[in-house]
Amino acid sequence: MGAGKVSFVIVQLFAFFTWHAIAQEYVRMGSNTNAAEAMQFLREYDREASGMCYRVTMSQWRFVTNITEYNRRRMLEELALNSKFERLSWRKAAAYDATRVSDVQSRRQLVKIVQGSRAALPEDKFNEIQQIITEMKEIYNAAKICPYGQKPYDSHLQRDSPFYPQSRQEPYDQTRSHSQDIYQPFGPGFPHETPENSNYCDMQLDPEISRILAHSRIESELVYVWKSFREQTGPKMKNRFMRYVQLANQAAVSTGYSDAGDQMRASYEDPSFRASLEEIYNQVAPLYKQLFTYVRRKLIQRYGERVVRPDGPIPAHLLGNMWAQNWKSIMDLVMPFPQAPNIDVTSEMLRQGFTPLRMFQMAEEFYTSMGMKPAPPEFWRGSMLARPAERSVQCTASAWDFCNRIDYR
Ligand SMILES: *[C@@H]1O[C@H](CO)[C@@H](O)[C@H](O)[C@H]1NC(C)=O
């Protein structure tokens, strides 16, 4: 091979990985400068991606509204097909030089396909990171803990302890009329709670653990379920997570970012993203600090200064939610003006015989009265508005877009 040919190869390599500033973000783009070809690719991609997204979303819908092993397998198959499609599309999109596309929308679409993806990884590593994500989700979803009140935790706590009766009188959310939704405190002395029972260590995040965090006011029980859930998830995920970070960073670097965080922030298309967030935080901080201090004071009144330090952070297990992200479940502890009228309309709605369907129809009337478009027929035909009695489903409220501009549920 002559020296001329070697330098030609080097020039080619550099041409393929040139760096271009697009929307103030650096992303590695290819060398194909044929804008018409790029536009043709985008038209095909739009059609194929919409079809792929419909299939994946439908398989996910079938699974969460009817949890069976068969539906789970079908969903995983569709997700695998989708990964293949994503990789293929990424390779096609990354071959174009988006700076040569004059149409702003198309240029942005091209960059979007390339910049958010991990498809820059070699195939084995791309499959590995997908597999790791699936495994981590399964560990999280399958985590089970034993009920509170057994060795080695608080075996001394008896039913007649002054703390026990309180949890039994805990008001539960009246809108959850389904019997299996009612929170029941676990502990020694209740039926079916001997370690011999096969269902004994069978408490899952949803519904049992979430319900305890929301409704129990026994600090030792709260800290027990919070820690036990972490013990059942964290150690099993640790090595997988570290490998995930490694692969995600590698994918980001191959796409033209400094690391995975840089890649994730790029999707906001704000070159001063950190500064913008800082500014918003500074606006909210004074209110947040007051709110935080107020809630901490109320929690000290309930649990005492040995549990909640008056000058420190609030322990996460006291806020009514596994991630301390939503504090609505401790409303009863922090509600100001207890003498103010109760605005909870649940009992009145029950008296009037409201059904889930009637609630959705009323919401529809409200939004259309403001001039918004009515929900499409697919919404009313396809949505699952109430928990079906005869099969296992995931009943958390969620909004679905089936990617075909018709079906929304
Ligand atoms: C639930 O899924 C199973 C397949 O596992 C299917 O046979 C059954 O008809 C589905 N039930 C409903 C109500 O869709």
From TrEMBL:
Q: How is the cofactor bound?
A: Binds 1 zinc ion per subunit.
For activity, the cofactor(s) needed are: Zn(2+)
Q: Which residues are glycosylated?
A: N66
Q: Which InterPro entries match?
A: Peptidase_M2
- Molecular functions per Gene Ontology: carboxypeptidase activity; metal ion binding; metallopeptidase activity; peptidyl-dipeptidase activity
Region spans: Disordered: 157-178
Q: Which residues cross the membrane?
A: none
- Name this polypeptide is given: Angiotensin-converting enzyme
* Source organism of the structure: Plutella xylostella (Diamondback moth)
Which lineage is the organism of this entry classified under, starting from the top rank?
Answer: Eukaryota, Metazoa, Ecdysozoa, Arthropoda, Hexapoda
